[in-house]
Backbone:
């Protein structure tokens, strides 16, 4: 029967398995503590990410300023200011007006968005709220069918997805519809539009609860449809100026000076970064506190595990194992136990996070994104490595403090 | 098998009271020494000092030419030269019999004795994969002896090796110790058993902290 010499590492792994009971409490302590630390870091990061993902994904150079002023003087002045502030800035003005479409089974309120001719990016404001604040962000309207840019000819239009499904259940393009353009004197001009593109629904297109026969639709059409009339004659007119510049804050300030409503994405993003930075400092402090608590727990758990092994150490020392042999064995055992349980705690936290994400999706209908920042990974990594090395070494050192004779006699 | 030359001169050791006052002893490969004495006379302490697991207060101890100092660990000397046999067997309960026997090889690159031959010699082949907790006293002691012999030591230090055994197993253990001594392995045996003590080549009684030769 061939018996090979065992390596120190495989002996240590075997001893961990055989002393599973002694390591139970220690393992539970490690898994709970590291799960708590990682769970806290992941929850904070994910909450921040989900709170600010819309805001931080917005282009910071976009300014969208609007006003209800009928004559458009403020917008003309803003246009001049933009050129003064940044001659390379892109900007244009567009209008919105409300109307009602009565020829369908629904009570349809439509927002007509008159955009200029040419290949222009179209942005819309969205209100979006976190636990702490409400933000107003400008997001580019996303085309999902038909045209791939807002380059509209005189009789062409783009509508939102849910409205498109109502008027074209077969999913065909183009579709013709007649739309009433309502003027401030309550007169109506019917225009025939070819629907040539479909854009994603936004928050305005949601049907209010208890109003199932109501629909809020958005129709993008060319400013050419205003024809010989003046934009200031449109019913419930809102004028918007879109600008794209690296000097977005200055343009935003100028718009506000002109009495317009404007929200600078860059400013809001900077405010969000301040909140995120404050959370970073809190995370560091919490990590240190958890590390100290974990350290105290680990010390007593390692001591308990070692108490169960004193006889074994005494025997091994008596038969000739050196201090280094014992240190090495318990160092390996400490490393195996720590690393295994840290990996288990990562799996536990990841599974809980996935379950929470599924809960958010199924019950709350929210796309909750699991996120962990590099900073948190570093905190967790430093805590794991530091505690693993320190306690494995301490465990190994304490293992050599065993008096051989005392524990041999104690069997 | 390695050469053994141990020399203890005027060894003293005290705990709360003096245990060893003036111990002088020489051990060579051919030695087969039994040390007898009352409980608490210091027999185990002397064996522990010989086995380099306990320090002494004063005197001189030379182990194969190495002068032993207090508070220094001589693990390598212990590992490669000494085979310990304990009354309480001191087998590690979480390991199987085979793993207990091979434990010293984990710490030494010294050529080990033929495992199969040793297992045959001690008649423990059916026990190898068993847990030590399932064994009888005699079986445990035979496994413990196999562990002490696996690195082919120059000296066996046996502390009451037959203390917990029935006459049949006592005889087996005694025969083994004699066989090993005939192979050139020194044996130092502590026992209460005068019959076993009288079978040794040299018998000492530890009395008043001194070794008194009886045979």
Residues:
């Amino acid at each position: 029967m061939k018996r090979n010499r065992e390596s120190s590492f495989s002996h240590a792994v075997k001893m961990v398995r055989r002393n599973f009971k002694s390591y139970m409490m220690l393992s539970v302590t490690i898994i709970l503590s590291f799960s708590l630390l990682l769970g806290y870091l992941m929850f904070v990061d994910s909450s921040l990410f989900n709170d600010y993902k819309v805001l931080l994904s917005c282009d910071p150079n976009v300014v969208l300023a609007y006003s209800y002023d009928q004559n458009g003087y403020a917008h003309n002045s803003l246009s001049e200011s933009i050129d003064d502030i940044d001659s390379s800035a892109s900007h244009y003005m567009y209008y919105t007006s409300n109307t009602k479409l009565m020829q369908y089974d629904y009570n349809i309120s439509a927002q007509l968005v008159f955009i200029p001719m040419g290949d222009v990016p179209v942005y819309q404001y969205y209100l979006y709220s976190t636990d702490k604040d409400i933000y107003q962000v400008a997001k580019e309207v996303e085309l999902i069918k038909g045209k791939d840019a807002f380059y509209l000819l005189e009789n062409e239009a783009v509508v939102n997805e849910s409205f498109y499904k109502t008027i074209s259940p077969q999913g065909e393009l183009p579709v013709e519809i007649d739309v009433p353009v309502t003027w401030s004197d309550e007169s109506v001009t019917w225009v025939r539009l070819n629907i040539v593109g479909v854009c994603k629904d936004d928050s305005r297109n949601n049907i209010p609860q208890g109003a199932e026969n109501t629909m809020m639709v958005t129709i993008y059409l060319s400013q050419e449809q205003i024809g010989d009339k003046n934009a200031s004659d449109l019913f419930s007119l809102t004028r918007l100026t879109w600008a794209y510049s690296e000097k977005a804050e200055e343009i935003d300030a100028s718009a506000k000076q002109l009495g317009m409503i404007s929200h600078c994405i860059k400013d809001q993003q900077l405010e969000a970064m301040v909140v995120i930075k404050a959370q970073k400092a809190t995370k560091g402090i919490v990590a240190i506190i958890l590390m100290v608590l974990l350290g105290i727990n680990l010390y007593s758990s390692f001591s308990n595990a070692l108490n169960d092994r004193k006889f074994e150490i005494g025997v091994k020392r008596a038969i000739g194992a050196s201090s280094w042999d014992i240190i090495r064995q318990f160092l390996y055992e400490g490393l195996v136990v720590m690393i295994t349980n840290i990996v288990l705690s990562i799996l536990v936290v990841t599974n809980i996070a996935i379950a929470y994400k599924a809960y958010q999706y199924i019950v709350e209908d929210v796309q909750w994104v699991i996120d962990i920042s590099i900073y948190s990974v570093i905190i967790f990594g430093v805590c794991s490595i530091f505690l693993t090395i320190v306690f494995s070494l301490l465990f190994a050192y304490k293992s050599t403090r065993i008096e051989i004779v005392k524990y041999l006699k104690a069997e | 098998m390695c050469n053994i030359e141990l020399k203890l001169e005027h060894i003293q050791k005290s705990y709360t009271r003096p245990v060893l006052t003036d111990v002088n002893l020489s051990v060579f490969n051919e030695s087969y020494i039994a040390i007898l004495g009352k409980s608490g006379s210091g027999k185990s302490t002397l064996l522990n000092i010989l086995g380099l697991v306990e320090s002494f207060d004063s005197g001189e101890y030379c182990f194969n030419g190495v002068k032993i100092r207090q508070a220094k660990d001589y693990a390598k000397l212990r590992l490669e030269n000494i085979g310990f046999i304990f009354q309480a067997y001191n087998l590690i309960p979480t390991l199987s019999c085979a793993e207990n026997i091979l434990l010293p090889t984990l710490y030494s690159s010294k050529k080990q004795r033929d495992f199969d031959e040793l297992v045959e010699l001690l008649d423990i082949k059916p026990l190898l994969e068993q847990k030590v907790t399932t064994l009888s006293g005699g079986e445990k002691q035979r496994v413990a002896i196999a562990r002490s012999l696996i690195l082919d030591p120059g000296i066996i230090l046996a502390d009451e090796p037959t203390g917990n055994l029935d006459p049949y197993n006592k005889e087996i253990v005694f025969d083994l110790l004699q066989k090993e001594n005939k192979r050139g392995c020194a044996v130092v045996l502590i026992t209460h058993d005068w019959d076993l003590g009288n079978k040794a080549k040299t018998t000492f009684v530890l009395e008043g902290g001194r070794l008194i030769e009886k045979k």
